[in-house]
């Protein structure tokens, strides 16, 4: 079994981007600029958004974190988005999800200028992704594809089973894996909470992408020898022996799967860091297009 090391790969990508940024600055250009809007006080969201800001600082991007009270109205948030859409010195921005429940998430995401939508969530960018046109790909599935590419995992003609059909992971990764690209060209089965006999499907899979948010859901008896396993899940479980007070679990029973898998992503240190790397790649792409 080999580890698909997302932490190392994302560091490689960050180093590559940092070199490009240094070149831009040497020529007198402004640095690429990414902003993030965080509404409310959710601890996990704050951790994610802070790691995105830290990653920007490390590679020489300018970053702006906009923190808003959970009590602001939808109109106030839309005004904030409008300001970012019209800021000529901003290349991209994200709205950290989930939003508090009184917001209409679709309405908010649809208000983002598709040309600054570096999370790749706007319907126009999703449409382009489906049509295999150049666009910002959603960060987590893009990170998974990049990881498969850099480890030269063969996907063409393979059977890929995706568990979970969310808009941000399961659905887009199923599209990307089936597209006529490399990686891609897989035969994809998209499964979800209504799927019957999931184990029958996972036992046939050459590649499994697990994104359902249930700790250690995929167990050793559900997979065949040699399977490639991509674990997207992140569940915080209280653990007083940890300084943070919790331990992170993936959707995969790592010890059981490690015995059978040919490749596997760890949690933490797998898909998570690749998501951030993709966001930075999209921001650099936006910068280049705008300049
Ligand atoms: P979600 O929470 O929106 O939806 C869960 C999906 O799982 C649904 O589509 C549901 O149909 C499916 N599901 C539930 N029970 C199932 C079952 N028994 N069998 C098959 N499918 C089932 O999904 P999400 O937002 O993609 O999040 C999934 C996990 O991935 C969460 O733990 C989240 O924290 C994590 N995540 C990680 C990253 C990262 O960068 N590593 C990014 C996004 C999400």
In short:
The chain has 291 residues and is of the alpha/beta class.
How many helices? The count is 10
List the bound ligands.
nicotinamide-adenine-dinucleotide
Largest sheet: 6 strands, parallel
CATH class of the largest domain: Alpha Beta
Counted up, domains total 2
CATH architecture of the largest domain: 3-Layer(aba) Sandwich
Helix share bin? 25-40%
**Low-pLDDT ranges:** none
Instruction: Write down the Rg.
Output: 19 Å
Question: What is the CATH superfamily of the largest domain?
Answer: NAD(P)-binding Rossmann-like Domain
What's the number of extended β-strand segments?
A: 11
Q: What letter string, H or E per element, gives the SSE order?
A: EHEHEHEHHHEHEHEEEEHEH
**Average pLDDT taken over every residue:** 97
Descriptive account of the structure:
The chain starts with a strand and ends with a helix. The protein has 10 helices and 11 strands. It is α/β, with parallel strands linked by helices. The protein has 2 domains: 28-118, Rossmann fold, CATH 3.40.50; 139-272, 3-Layer(aba) Sandwich (Rossmann fold), CATH 3.40.50. Helix 1 (6-26) packs parallel to helix 10, helix 2 crosses helix 10 (271-290) and helix 6 (139-150) crosses helix 7 (170-178). The protein has helices spanning 6-26, 43-59, 74-85, 105-110, 123-130, 139-150, 170-178, 198-202, 254-258, 271-290, and strands at residues 2-3, 33-39, 62-68, 92-95, 159-163, 187-191, 207-210, 228-231, 235-238, 246-249, 263-264. Strand 2 (33-39), helix 2 and strand 3 form a beta-alpha-beta unit. The structure holds nicotinamide-adenine-dinucleotide. Nicotinamide-adenine-dinucleotide binds next to helix 10.
